[in-house]
Structure formats: structure tokens, C-alpha cells
Amino acid sequence: MCIFCKIAKKEEKAYVVYESDNVIAFLDINPLSKGHTLVIPKEHYENLLEVPSDLAKDLHEAIKAVCEKLKVFNPAGFNIVSNIGKQAGQVIMHAHIHVIPRYEDEETRP
Ligand code: 5GP
Ligand code: ZN
């Protein structure tokens, strides 16, 4: 079972930011900025393009809820990114979306 499947099943620790029936979001272990969060379907799909559209809707709802929660840090904006394929930087082969808060005083390039 992959590491994100284990996090989804609570067999591996993570700081959970948001959870619904089909989706879980948790802090990235190696954050690019304060509050960097990963949003994943609980079910294993290799990447975002493999995720069925009805489940993608749940992911979108989760992204909005996560961004709302991250507003406690007063970000100036967000990068919302999904790497698809090794050449694009995908390391964990379980679909995930990076939600990266951006702040006034930092470099904006992801
Ligand atoms: P990718 O490069 O595949 O798009 O991103 C994978 C992300 O998962 C990386 O930002 C990495 O820091 C994060 N990550 C990898 N393993 C773990 C883990 O065990 N726990 C958490 N919370 N994040 C992880
Ligand atoms: Zn998985």
C-alpha cells in the first residue's frame, strides 16, 4: 500500500487539515511555505487525470475548504498544483493536489 493510502487509512501519521467521506487533506512533511497542504482522494488513483469527475468535484470542495482554513495565516494568494508523471516532478504515485499559501514577503515562483 502506498504512503498516502496509509495516511488516508490513519495507518500513518499526518496533520489532518480537512476530511470528508472521499477526501483527506494534510500538511506536507516538507513544506514549501507555511501551511503547504496536500489534498488527496482516499481511494488510490495514480494521478489527477485518473480521478473520476464526480470525485474531482469532492477534491475541489476540499481545496476551497482548505484555502478557507489557511486564511488564518493571512496568505496573499495560493498556488494550486498537481504534478503528473515523474518528469513533471511527481514522486508519490497517489493523486494529490498541492495547496501552497503564498505570502507578501516571499518569492512567488513555485
Ligand atoms: P509530488 O512531488 O509527488 O507532487 O509531491 C509529493 C509531496 O508529498 C512532497 O511535497 C513531499 O514533501 C510530500 N510527502 C512525501 N511523503 C510524505 C509523508 O509521508 N507525509 C506527508 N505529510 N507528506 C509527504
Ligand atoms: Zn495510494
What low-confidence regions span 5 or more consecutive residues with pLDDT below 50? none
Kindly state the percentage of residues in helix: 10-25%
Could you name the CATH class?
Alpha Beta
CATH superfamily: HIT-like
Query: What letter string, H or E per element, gives the SSE order?
Result: HEEEHEE
Give the names of the bound compounds.
guanosine-5'-monophosphate, zinc ion
Major beta sheet summary: 5 strands, antiparallel
Number of domains: 1
CATH architecture: 2-Layer Sandwich
N- to C-terminal distance: 29 Å
Task: Using the CA coordinates, give the radius of gyration.
Answer: 13 Å
Based on CA inertia axes, which overall geometry fits?
Answer: globular
Query: Which class do the helix and strand fractions yield?
Result: alpha+beta
Number of helices: 2
- Overall pLDDT score: 96
User: Total strand count, please?
Assistant: 5
CATH topology: HIT family, subunit A
GO molecular function: catalytic activity
Domain HIT: 3-109
Protein name: Histidine triad (HIT) protein
InterPro entries: HINT, Histidine_triad_HIT, HIT-like, HIT-like_sf
